Amino acid sequence: MSSLPVPDHDALTAVSTGYGLGLTPEEVGEYHPAVTGLLASWDVVAELYEAEAPAVPQREWSRPDRADNPYNAWYVRTSITESSSGPLAGRTVAVKDNTAVAGVPMTNGSATLEGFVPDTDATIVRRLLDAGATIAGKAVCEDLCFSGASITANTGDVENPWDPTRTAGGSSSGSGALVAAGIVDMATGGDQGGSIRIPAANCGLVGHKPTWGLVPYTGAFPIEFTIDHVGPITRTVGDAALMLSVIAGRDGHDPRQPSDLEVADYLGALGQDARGLRVGVLREGFGLAESEQEVDDTVRAATRALADAGLDVRDVSVPWHLHGPKIWDVIATEGATSQMIETSGYGLNWKGLYDPELMHHYGAQWAADPTAFSRTVKFVLLAGRYSLDTTHGRHYGMARNLAPKLAAAYDAALADVDVLVLPTLPQRATVRPDRDGPVLDTLGRALEMLANTAPFDVTGHPACSVPAGLAGGLPVGMMIVGRQFDDATVLRVAHAFEQAVGGFPAPTGAPAAMA
């Protein structure tokens, strides 16, 4: 039984000193019996919980060596199939290593979680298996998922199949590389600042960030409750719609999900004619300080292809889009400091399914060696702890109160059009820097691409990245954004574009035969 050690006098004195309670040794002694009496309840809760603990399934897994791990994209390999029928029968799926597959190691890309083995499948993993999918392994992700480039995972950089010197994007870096190379049919991703859409854009794939709450986050390692999303990364829009149809819907364990949630037939929606749908080209998504002209030009050309396919394409303006990244900065930085680090990933004060063993394992491990955090996480902690100590969450509260205004600005534009389109990222995949180089180089590469993606994590609108074309031999992503819970229309427009251009290109020379 995982009992709580009884605190001695010195332990309570340390707590008093830490909070500045000003208790004398005698006063600490007076509190001691009351505290130890209260803490007896912790042992009762542990006994009750452990009596209900599920048996951990025995599943085979292996760590691939570099020769069998193209692009360094696998964390572990598996072959888990539990049904021979269903809409995903015969299809292989890589699960991002922030998401639990019971009996299989999970690190969330970080040494701070090394050695953890979950005892329960994440909801989306259970749904994929029930639908006939084969879980082919855990895909590498960035350290605690806090990087938009494939340069921070504790297993090393993930390479881009289009150009191995460049980033595959993050934080779902291995998921993007494995699907782009044709090693798996599809993969799961997580998205708090763009981490489904960024690797999709860099690797020439379809990456769909669902409406916040459409897909249960249960069993995935959280960063910040209000911006957590999971969703599909695939080669085609049809596969994204199929996978979304499997994983969407309430599970009763995730309070991110509304009680009246309705799931559409996302695959069936692709059969509806998209001609006449109104497409708003978001002016503020172009011409950013970090934008490459080739990217803007490629996405503009893609919007003309939509017009040629019979969609009603027009320019729209949402000035608040330019404020979105700053609002995200505050929420993600203070929120992640509090939840992802200081309260062991899951945070407190929400009614959902927790993973107590993960919380204990990770919390004890990072506290024992905080130097193991990546540069990006250290950056977040320096800024986040300073701001929380200085203004005590005031700016987090401001940012959360501004989030509805940001959402309303997009909603106002979406009252006149069916979707918004803009570049997914301002630039193409960049060259991966030296891990031991200057800190600012690492931080720049890890966070430089978030301007267009991060605002929609704050607001929760559905957003899908599709390959707009190639520029200089590298993929460019176009992002399609829709009304809340109208993921079907987003995918319809994405599918119309895919049909208009005759499908999406794949990198040459990818070792798909090594699957």
TrEMBL record:
It comes from the Bacteria. It holds the Pfam family Amidase. InterPro entries: Amidase, Amidase_CS, Amidase_dom, AS_sf. Residues 79-491 form the Amidase domain. This is Amidase. It comes from Actinomycetospora rhizophila.
